[in-house]
Amino acid sequence: MIARDEYLEQIIRFKDQPLIKIITGIRRCGKSSVLVLLKEHLLLTGVAAKQIIAINFESFAFSDLTDAQKLYSFISKQIEPNKKNYLLIDEVQEVDNWEKCINSILVDFDIDIYITGSNSHLLSSELATYLAGRYIEIPIYTLSFKEYLKFNSHYKTNNTNDIRKLFINYLRQGGFPIVHTAAYSEDSIYKIIFDIYSSIILRDTIQRYKIRDVELLERVIKFVFDNTGNTFSGKNVADYFKSQFRKIDINTVYNYLYALEGAFIVHRVPRYDIKGKELLKTQEKFYMSDVSLLYATMGYKDRLISGILENIVFLELKRRGYKVFVGKLDTKEVDFIAEKLGKKCYIQVAYKLENAETVEREFSVLLSINDQFPKYVVTMDEFWSESIQGINHFYIADFLLDTSY
Questions:
Q1: Are residue 45 and residue 77 in the same domain, yes or no?
Q2: Are residues 95 and 122 in the same domain?
Q3: Dist CA 98 CA 69 (whole Å)
Q4: Are 67 and 184 in the same domain?
Q5: Are 228 and 284 in the same domain?
């Protein structure tokens, strides 16, 4: 098993603190593996095996723990008295009223609790009600480009050309860990991802939100995927379906988008007015949790390359803990404003700076922002490395591996 050190370090930072550690993310992004790595860390640091209670609700072994009372009873019998105990629960949302059980366990025992879940709305709503102020959320994403290189352990060169060739593989294969554990063909990779996608749609959207019109949901998903990197609203979606002679009201569109966010299939990115310094309520962007979801459901589309590159940069910013916004500056758009702990940076993403007009479009909006925070233009131009008036230009693979932002 490949260690995902960044996530493990985040979790260990809160070890033995009186906070429930909530590990969230799309199914098959690696949450279960991180829990296994955590268990190994606890054992290596002197915690006895009897003090660790590990439950994985994707295992049939725990299928009878269907409600809070049964789960509480099971855990209470495993507690080692007069010692610090550690509770690791994988996919906790499979248990009805799980939050009541976790609340009682926290009150009744000397225990450090770590749980994972694959639905953000389920976790946030229930935790806010029963465990307000007593938990910390640690989001996990599919593999970053840096982690992808680590998974391909045979690769140990720092050669720029090799790194860029490997980025093309990463671009086409995505970051779900399972597809990088063996030498799968591209067709096999997309088949694996499609099966993951189908499971998420069924378990975390259709069943969770009681969606009846599955065919319409699939159409909305494909619209969102097909517009990766474009701003749009629920009205845009409804108008599109109307043009296709398929009626859908705006509330249904927003309900479906809400469900897709909850299952971590997409991430909503709000727009921010740089001059007015306020969040805007319309024309957000939506990005996929992994670009391979697009390929698995709709095939690879060259015309979407700019949006796909934006998606990859967006996920990298989220992995690094940034809050991310789409920027509006008068009539122009900044692809990303990223903020963290008083730090800020502005990023434009494009496929190629093919002519003077493209260079003008990508650089001019950043030059119009009058502050001293870093500004970047990220593209797939391999031989064009010039920076303009302090705005740094990066080849995307180099940007993803850069540690300066």
A1: yes
A2: yes
A3: 9
A4: no
A5: yes
Range of the domain at 388: 145-401
Q: Rounded distance, CA 181 to CA 332, Å? A: 43
Amino acid identity at 372? Q
CB contact at 8 A, 177 and 33: yes
Please state, in angstroms and rounded to a whole number, the distance separating the CA atoms of residues 34 and 62. Answer: 20
Domain's final residue, options 121, 139, 157: 139
- Beta carbons of 124 and 95 less than 8 angstroms apart: no
Report the alpha-carbon distance of residue 344 to residue 405 in Å, rounded.
Answer: 9
Q: What is the pLDDT of residues 99-141, one digit of tens each?
A: 889 999 999 999 999 999 998 876 666 666 777 778 899 999 9
Which tens digits make up the pLDDT trace of 191-215? 999 999 999 999 999 999 999 999 9
For 286, the enclosing helix (H) or strand (E) is strand 278-288
Same domain for 154 and 134: no
Name the 3-class secondary structure at 391: strand
DSSP string, 5-38: HHHHHHHHTTTTSSSEEEEE-STTSSHHHHHHHH
Q: Which of 139, 158, 189 is the last residue of a domain?
A: 139
Q: Write out pLDDT tens, residues 233-255.
A: 888 899 999 898 888 999 999 99
Total domains, the chain: 2
Question: Both 321 and 374 in a single domain?
Answer: yes
34 — phi, psi (to 5°)? -65, -40
DSSP H helices in 119-185: 120-130, 145-151, 160-173
Pair 7, 138: CB distance under 8 Å: yes
CATH of the domain at 12: 3.40.50.300
